[in-house]
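[recover] target loaded
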């Protein structure tokens, strides 16, 4: 069932995601990688190898950016290499990202990487405040450089409380961003309202935010939607995102123009397993095309504490 303000689209069949297994879970390989492998994002390097960017945490719960390379096919995967140092670590004391950095999305642009990320700053009256930053560098570089010591999206009149995970698409002469925005804090972690909004830019650096909500909370027990992943196919835009109802699960929406979205959550097709590392929740998905297939990276139990896995969409492209 699809619902919302999206333009009319022909009905598609429910997605059939086939899980290929857990890819990686930190085991204290480095002091900055003691736990978690959250928010995985795939960037194909060629027809065989995909570089996955993700965010591990240190013993103080501060996140950094890391990567691993894997050979990926619809029949399975093999991990080839894990980075030995963080691509980007927490910012300087007092900076918007001094309590950690987590990956939002990764793009190639003019021969370099652009990594839009979330900066963490711990709060007093609320647990945290988030901002959106940007780092760049060569694909093979050992480290990324911040484009600015300040966030590229800070709090403002339409986003006065906290921002979250950006997903950016270069769409011709215009760049589009879908990002999370806090509308309200409550007395507990389950007492908040968090939605997905849209922004626009001529260059991916300067952003206009009209305050338009792309995906809002709808169900009785749903209080947050976050971490969008957006693809554009020939006939429609597709978005996968995380829902808290109150445990995490995945949602899905479609749009004819990338502006007005219709929620089709029941069509998402990826659910927790009966047992194991993703038996309680599935969340923080990112979807990408590679080698003729469509794949999803996602986290399982514990917000990434149990690592991340990969699934392939059966029937896609056939």
């Amino acid at each position: 069932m699809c619902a919302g303000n999206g333009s009319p689209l022909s009905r598609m069949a429910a997605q059939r995601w086939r899980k290929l297994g857990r890819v990686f879970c930190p085991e204290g390989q480095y002091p900055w990688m003691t736990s978690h492998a959250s928010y995985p994002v795939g960037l194909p390097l060629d027809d065989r190898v995909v570089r996955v960017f993700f965010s591990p945490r240190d013993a103080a719960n501060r996140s950094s950016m890391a990567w691993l390379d894997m050979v990926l096919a619809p029949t399975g995967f093999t991990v080839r290499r894990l980075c030995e140092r963080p691509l980007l670590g927490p910012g300087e004391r007092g900076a918007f990202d001094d309590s950690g950095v987590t990956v939002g999305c990764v793009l190639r642009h003019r021969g370099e990487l652009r990594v839009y990320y979330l900066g963490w700053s711990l709060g007093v009256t609320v647990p945290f405040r988030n901002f959106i930053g940007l780092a760049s560098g060569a694909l093979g570089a050992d480290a990324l450089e911040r484009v600015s010591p300040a966030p590229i999206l800070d709090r403002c009149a339409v986003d006065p409380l906290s921002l979250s995970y950006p997903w950016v698409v270069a769409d011709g002469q215009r760049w589009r961003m879908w990002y999370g925005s806090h509308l309200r804090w409550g007395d507990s972690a389950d007492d908040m309202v968090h939605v997905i909004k849209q922004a626009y830019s001529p260059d991916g650096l300067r952003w206009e935010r009209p305050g338009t909500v792309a995906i809002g909370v709808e169900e009785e027990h749903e209080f947050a939607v976050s971490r969008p992943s957006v693809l554009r196919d020939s006939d429609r835009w597709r978005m996968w995102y995380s829902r808290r109802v109150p445990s995490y699960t995945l949602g899905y929406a479609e749009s004819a123009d990338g502006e007005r979205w219709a929620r089709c959550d029941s069509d998402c097709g990826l659910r927790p397993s009966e047992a194991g590392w993703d038996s309680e929740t599935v969340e923080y998905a990112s979807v990408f095309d590679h080698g003729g297939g469509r794949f999803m990276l996602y986290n399982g139990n514990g917000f990434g504490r149990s690592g991340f896995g990969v699934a392939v969409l059966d029937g896609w492209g056939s």
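[recover] notes: The chain has a mean pLDDT of 94.
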